[in-house]
TrEMBL record:
Coiled coil: none annotated. InterPro entries: GvpL/GvpF (IPR009430). It is found in: Gas vesicle. The keyword Lipid metabolism does not apply. Its main location: other. It comes from the Bacteria. This is Gas vesicle protein. It comes from Limnoraphis robusta CS-951. The keyword Plastid does not apply. Pfam families: GvpL_GvpF (PF06386).
Length: 227
């Protein structure tokens, strides 16, 4: 039986042991294999229908992430972005054969590793509460002192950001840094599973070294940013 509209979640090495394949958007997913490389697909998924229904589209995106995460818990995967589909198996197999070496190399680079998100949120200097009884001169002096304190705070906060980047990249060369001057900045780390306990200790040290930033370390996830 021919399969059509193959919505594709991820590529992986053809498994030597049976995987527990999850249910996709509407149907169970399956493997389509070309030698040592396989694709995780769900047949009969019409993207046009999903994109015309906002609620269905949101659920499909959530489902996409869930399927990849369930696979990631079992084996190394090369996750694909939402919306990748092949008309039929023949097209998918041609694609796998044409890109087999590239995909296999990427999968090997990700073997035994996961992605962690380090959020870096700039703290704000608390403004002093000025007494309504302050006279004009005293009020002006208090505002001037706060302005100077804010300037010093910003300089130190900027230096701490540079320190965060240095400390993180020193330990984890495979990082992707998305800096923001106003909101939270994000650092994505590619970390070996066996080193997770070290990451937890390092995170505490990073926070101590950079008190003008609130650091938040997320849970391990598939390596979306390293493909």
């Amino acid at each position: 039986m021919k399969l059509y509209n193959l919505y594709t979640y991820a590529f992986l090495k053809t498994p030597t042991e049976k995987l527990k394949l999850p249910v996709g958007i509407t149907n169970p997913v399956l493997l389509i294999t070309s030698g040592t490389l396989s694709a995780v697909v769900e047949p009969e998924v019409c993207l046009d229908t999903l994109q015309n229904d906002e609620e269905c589209l949101i659920q499909a995106v959530l489902c996409h992430d869930r399927v990849i995460y369930e696979l990631f818990q079992q084996t190394t995967v090369l996750p694909l972005r939402f919306g990748i589909s092949f008309i039929e198996a023949k097209n998918l197999l041609i694609h796998l054969n044409s890109n087999a070496q590239e995909y296999q190399d990427k999968i090997e680079q990700l073997e035994g590793k996961g992605e962690y998100l380090l959020k870096c949120i700039p703290r704000k200097l608390q403004e002093p509460v000025l007494s309504p009884d302050l006279g004009g001169r005293q009020y002006f002096l208090a505002k001037k002192q706060h302005y100077q304190a804010q300037q010093n705070f910003d300089i130190l906060q900027g230096a701490e950001w540079q320190n965060i980047v240095h400390l993180v990249t020193e330990s984890y060369p495979s990082t992707i840094i998305i800096a923001s001057t106003e909101a939270e900045s994000r650092i994505y780390l590619l970390v070996k599973f066996k080193d997770e306990y070290l990451l937890t200790d390092q995170f505490l040290n990073w926070q101590k070294a950079c008190p003008r930033w609130e650091l938040q370390l997320g849970q391990v996830s598939p390596p979306y940013h390293f493909i």
